[in-house]
Design brief:
11 helices, eight-stranded parallel barrel, Xyl_isomerase-like_sf, two-stranded antiparallel ribbon, alpha/beta, Xylose isomerase-like TIM barrel domain-containing protein
């Protein structure tokens, strides 16, 4: 089965603030199968569900800040259940000591277990710092060793930015990976750009997704050079769709 393609809505956050439904409608027109939420812009769960029905978009997942997951988990799960989401993602965490990371991972594993008991999957989304904050340690390794309930949403851009050999790292952690974040990289300055316009081997990354039988490839772009975020989202979808079609012939 080919993976479906979604957009992490952080990529088009200003457009979502201005016109949430209109932006979602455009994303469906661009060819996206679904979206990954990064906030709801003061809309209720019922309102979000209605937008999804109107646009025909599916929910690939939702990024939920850690403080909400830690202190408001029942409310989070109720909201996500209403909108039809089954994947809850912790998008970011950072700590200055190994001891703080260990305590966080222990607490996160408890949250992940509760999430799983309630019919969801739980993911942690990486950046580059998880490979650098604790000298000689890979914090993502700690997570997967601590709990089988924690899966990884691997951001391949940040994996590369951290200096990791992406295929080797992915293969070594394949049992824990459930989603990919897809974005390309330009140099000088080093930042994200439209898929196909940068230096990362995006076709190789899609092949990795095929090996892992991942259900979603989630586009994310955080920096923009020649195009607006919405224009870039359209290009990202077109190029990634073409690569997926080529890899799954």
């Amino acid at each position: 089965m080919k993976p479906q393609i979604a957009l992490q809505l952080w990529s088009v956050q200003e457009a979502c603030k201005a016109d949430f439904l209109g932006t979602l409608t455009k994303l469906k027109e661009f060819g996206y199968d679904g979206i990954e939420f990064a906030g709801y812009y003061d809309h209720s769960a019922d309102e979000i569900l209605e937008m999804l029905k109107k646009t025909g978009l599916s929910v690939a997942g939702s990024h939920i800040p850690w403080d909400q997951l830690d202190t408001q988990l029942d409310d989070v799960m109720a909201f996500e259940k209403t909108i039809g989401n089954t994947r809850i993602v912790c998008p970011y965490a950072t700590f200055s000591t190994a001891e703080e990371w260990v305590a966080f991972i222990k607490r996160m594993s408890e949250v992940a277990a509760t999430v799983k008991e309630n019919g969801f999957e739980f993911f942690y989304h990486n950046h580059a710092h998880e490979f650098k904050e604790v000298p000689t340690e890979d914090v993502l390794d700690w997570m997967t060793r601590e709990s089988k309930d924690i899966q990884l949403e691997v951001d391949l851009y940040w994996l590369s930015a951290a200096g990791k050999e992406v295929p080797k790292w992915v293969h070594a952690h394949s049992d824990s990976i459930g989603l990919f974040h897809m974005k390309d990289m330009k140099k000088d300055p080093e930042e994200s750009t439209e898929i196909g316009s940068g230096i990362l081997p995006m076709k190789e990354y899609v092949q990795l997704a095929k090996e892992l039988a991942l259900p979603w490839l989630i586009v994310e772009q955080e920096a923009f050079q020649a195009y607006t975020p919405v224009e870039a989202a359209k290009i990202d979808c077109q190029v990634l769709t073409s690569i997926v079609e080529e890899c799954f012939q």
